[in-house]
Amino acid sequence: MDRIQKLQEFLTASPNDNFLKHALALEYIKLNDDAKAKELFLDILSTSPDYIGSYYHLAKLLERNAETEAAVEWYEKGMAAAKEAKDQHAYNELQAAYEDLIY
Questions:
Q1: Domain residues for 73?
Q2: Which of 5, 86, 96, 103 has its CA at 20 to 30 Å from residue 69's CA atom?
């Protein structure tokens, strides 16, 4: 059984598990299915804005798809969330990606 099928099975049993959703989104990115990945990241962040790791991956996905304004917005939201969570490492990663994009 492939990873996507396995993750989907796990999600059926635990539909609100953000770790599983995030992992599934990353698998979709590997398959160049950015639409499905984006949908999952947006779902995670709409219900759990404190799930810091998804901000970076969503913004990078948007950046790859030339959705620059949206990418900037998600980097900014992610930096705010990381700051609130006192996650300096995530903040630094988001800030570096943000600065690479806007400068």
A1: 3-102
A2: 86
Q: What is the pLDDT of residues 41-82, one digit of tens each?
A: 999 999 999 999 999 999 999 999 999 999 999 999 999 999
Could you give the number of structural domains in the chain? Answer: 1
pLDDT in tens, 18-43: 999 999 999 999 999 999 999 999 99
Residue by residue, DSSP assigns 27-84 as HHHHTT-HHHHHHHHHHHHHH-TT-THHHHHHHHHHHHTT-HHHHHHHHHHHHHHHHH
Other Cβ atoms less than 10 A from the Cβ of 13: the count is: 8
Q: What's the CATH code of the domain at 24?
A: 1.25.40.10
Structure tokens at 13: 């049993």
Q: Which residues in 45-84 are b (16+ Cβ under 10 Å) and which e?
A: beeebebbbbbbbbbbbbbeeebeebbbebbbbbbebbee
